[in-house]
Amino acid sequence: MTRFIPSEEIDEQQVRHWHFGGVRNGTFNKGFAAMPEMTSDPALLPLAEESVAEPQPEELEAAPVPELELDDVPLPVPGISEEELQQQLEQARQEAYAQGLEQGQQQAAQEWQARMADYQNNLGRETAQRLNEVLHAAQTGVQGLQQQMAPDLLQLAVDIARQVVRQELRCNPQALQPVVAEALDMLGADTKPAVVRLNPEDFQQLQAHLRAALPNPKLEWLSDPTVAKGGCLVESQGAQIDGSLERRWQRAVAALGLVSTWYDGGAGHGN
Q1: What is the pLDDT of residues 70-87, one digit of tens each?
Q2: Choosing a second label site near 45 at 20 to 30 A (CA), which of 19, 102, 156, 201?
């Protein structure tokens, strides 16, 4: 840093005035060579030191410092070449990709399982509902079918029972005995006179058996062709019990809510 020297600091004995001479004739060089060395004089050293004084802190702070970005400064990796660094980066990228792929697959599997569970639950509920509807419809249909078939089935049962009774009477004519005994009990004819009328065939086959089974001297056994086979007619003091098969059959099927005659089905009166 330079400054002007005040005249008070100049020693006139040591300073000589400079006179510019001609440049072409070498006067400039002669005058320059004739000048004494200023720095050789101890009196001029402080001036020289002041001329090269160090900058002050204020001046250093005012000087602009260039800013550097972190990205602009390369980070050296000791012992690793650029190719190896690229390989490591590629390996890290592949590992990150594989890890992300695995996580994505696991998440997709979990979502698929959750959706499948929801679908199965919904399907199970829909299936159960449909099954209930089918069962309800089937039950309703069966009930309707039963209502339609019940009379037919009952009528079939009655027809079968009729055939069984007829077969029993053919094989066992003595089955008439309980009928006669029941009729006598209903009339209270144990101690009073009574008349028992039987079909001629039954009378011929059962007279002796019935007399032995029902020993009552007040009973009168008669053969009457108006009485159907397998039946009887019991009279006592103006009261009469119709023990014919027709009558007994009507009472039996009436309890089932049916109206059926003993001779339905084309059977003859003699059966």
Answers
A1: 445 455 556 678 788 788
A2: 19
Token couple for 35: 């000048």
Angstrom distance (rounded) from CA 117 to CA 110: 10
List of E strands, 101-208? 194-198
Beta bridge partners of 148: none
Neighbours of 195 (CB within 10 A): 16
| Alpha-carbon gap, residue 256 to 155, rounded angstroms | 10
* N residues, the chain: 271
Handedness of CA 25, 30, 31, 32 (dihedral sign): positive
Q: What's the DSSP call for residue 175?
A: G
Instruction: Give phi and psi for 233, each to the nearest 5.
Output: -135, 120
154-254: in CATH 3.60.15.10: no
| Helical packing angle, 82-171 and 245-254, nearest 10° | 150
Provide the whole-model pTM.
Answer: 0.40
Structure tokens at 45: 């050293």
Question: What's the rounded mean pLDDT across residues 152-177?
Answer: 72
